[in-house]
Every structure is written in C-alpha cells, then in structure tokens.
Write a structure and sequence with these properties.
This protein is of the alpha/beta class. Helix content is 33%, strand content 16%. The protein is built from eleven helices and 13 strands. The strands form three sheets. Strands 8-7-6-11-12-13 form a six-stranded parallel sheet, with helices on both faces. Helix 7 packs parallel to helix 8.
Length: 321
C-alpha cells in the first residue's frame, strides 16, 4: 500500500484530503477509542498543510435518518483536535454506498485532491467510500490503518508462543474462519458467548474450550460462571500472545460483567503481548480503566478477525492497486 506517512510534504501542502474515518459511534464522547485513534492522522495532515474533508458513516440507515447524522460526533472530534473540521454527511444515506458504485465515487472524489483511508474497521466492506473511491483519486493508507496492518500482521504470522485467543460477542459464526486459519498456531481458543452453536464442527475441535458453567438470568446464559473464569484465568496466565475479540458476557448489565472483568484482569497480570478488538471490547476496557494496559487495541471487530483469518479486505486491496 502507498502510505500517508511516506508522502513528501510538498505533495500534502495546500491540497485537500478526502479522509475516510470511522464515526460509527452510538454514544460519542471524548474518551471514545475510535475518535482518539484517528486524531494522529488528522493532526499529521493539518500540520503538513493539508485541508481535510471527513468522509464517514453511522449505523445502517435506510435513507436519511436524523438519529444518524454525523454532527454530534463531528462536534466532539473537532473539540478533541482543537479546530472545526469540515465533513460530508453520512455516506450511507446514499444507497449507492453499499454497491461500490463508481458514479457515486466520482461525485465524492470532487471533494478532494487525494484520498486517505484511515478506517480499518470498515475496510472489510466493499463499499464506495472504501473501495471504488480509490479509482478516482490518488489514494493512501492513514497512520492508523498503517499501524493496524503492521501490528496484526505480526500477530498473525509470528506470534510469540503460546498464543491464546478469547472469542465472545454475538457474531460467533463470523469468527470461525479466524479459528481455522490460526488453529495450528494457537494454544487455546476460549469461547465466551452464550450465542454459540455447540453442534458447529469448528467448536468441536480439541483446542476450542467452551464454558462449563454460566451466570444466568431467567434460564438464559448471560456470563461465564466461576468455574469457567478460573479455568480461563489459568490458561491466560501462561500465554505470551493474547488476542481478545468480544466480551464474554452481557456487559450492558453490571451483574454480568464479572467474566469479562476477570478476563481483563488476568490478561493485565501477564507479560504477554495483548491486543483487543471491536467496539464493545474497547469500550469495556476503557470503562474499566485498563485499556492502557493492553499493547494494542484494534478499532476493528469483524475487520480484525477477517485480517487474522488472512482474508482479503476490499479496502486494503483497493489501496494496493
């Protein structure tokens, strides 16, 4: 990929950058990890004399939706950066965004002299503002995207052993490919979701550990139980590389945060290289005050796992052409 960090200052000065970032945040605040993560690229562009127009999305609207305007998030981002930032409205208000449409891409391209993708979290989507846009402007990877690729490549290809992967959240089926690809390199996969299909062949593998007990609510499994917590803590204690994707319980309810809290505490007690990914996981770590104790927090959930599964991410492939 061509990198923003390697561009000559003469190229940047006086030119307008169409900057794709991730503003898909339900309740924006200044501590939000995704907002903080894009600040270095924004400041880099401004310090090198570029003008910026932000390109992003929120939610999955069907047409225009006042609840999903970018204004509330942009107001906070501008405050963090220290100046008002220009932006285009939610690109998903246009149905052509999902179709990787070149006519829509051409319209977007009129708003900049060059394009920078700093939205790793959406780069696994073949969308117009992620992929097709690169055919209409000189295109580069931002500082965040560059760092995501560098760190995750290291973990995927050359993890320090033993490697332990913790998988929670709802979209368990989406994570099977990562389990298959990393299976031979991994000591154990610790499953922490109540949404698993125990008949799934992937979950029958020897290294895949399913919770043995649960904390329940009206007979519904909501969090891993004390026996599972102890078992997972023992496995984590011996790890040299840890990947965590998805909380292991229903963290929205305080009484079902114990499992995720115990996992986080166990990780911070190791000397492992620890990374976490996804919006729910990063938000939880920030709320618990332990985010700074992780070596890296990826802005991507599905994108991180697709990358770890060695899948081609449309946003990255577009930047290579």
């Amino acid at each position: 990929m061509k990198l923003l960090s390697r561009l000559d200052e003469n190229f940047l000065r006086g030119r307008s950058c169409l900057l794709r970032i991730n503003l898909d945040i339900k309740e924006p605040n200044e501590k939000n990890w995704r907002l903080q993560a894009v600040v270095p690229t924004i400041k880099y562009l401004l310090e090198h004399g570029s003008k910026i127009k932000i390109l992003s999305h929120r939610g999955r609207p069907e047409g225009e939706d006042k609840e999903l305007l970018l204004a509330p998030v942009m107001k906070i981002l501008s405050k963090i950066v220290g100046q008002e930032l220009d932006y285009l409205e939610n690109v998903r208000f246009n149905s052509l965004e999902h179709k990787n449409d070149h006519q829509f891409a051409e319209e977007l391209a009129k708003n900049g002299d060059f394009y920078v993708n700093d939205d790793f979290a959406t780069s696994h989507r073949p969308h117009t503002s992620i992929s097709a846009i690169t055919s209409h402007l000189p295109s580069f990877a931002g500082l965040l995207l560059e760092k995501e690729v560098r760190v995750l490549t290291r973990v995927r290809e050359h993890p320090s052993q033993p490697l332990v992967i913790i998988i929670g959240g709802i979209k368990i089926a989406d994570k099977a490919a990562a389990i298959d690809y990393l299976y031979d390199k991994t000591e154990a996969f610790l499953m922490g979701s109540a949404y698993i299909d125990q008949e799934d062949p992937t979950l029958q593998k020897e290294k895949v550990i399913i919770p043995s007990d649960w904390s329940t609510d009206n007979s519904h499994e909501r969090d891993i139980g004390p026996q599972t917590i102890q078992q997972y803590q023992e496995v984590i204690s011996g790890a040299k590389t840890i990947i965590w994707s998805g909380p292991v319980g229903l963290i929205e309810l305080p009484k079902f945060r114990n499992g995720s809290r115990a996992v986080a505490e166990a990780i911070t007690k190791t000397d492992s290289f620890a990374i976490a990914g996804g919006g729910d996981t990063s938000r939880f770590l920030i709320e618990e005050g332990v985010a700074d104790m992780f070596d890296f927090i990826s802005t991507g959930g599905g994108a991180m796992l697709d990358f770890l599964a060695n899948k081609e991410l449309p946003g990255l492939e577009a930047l290579k052409k």
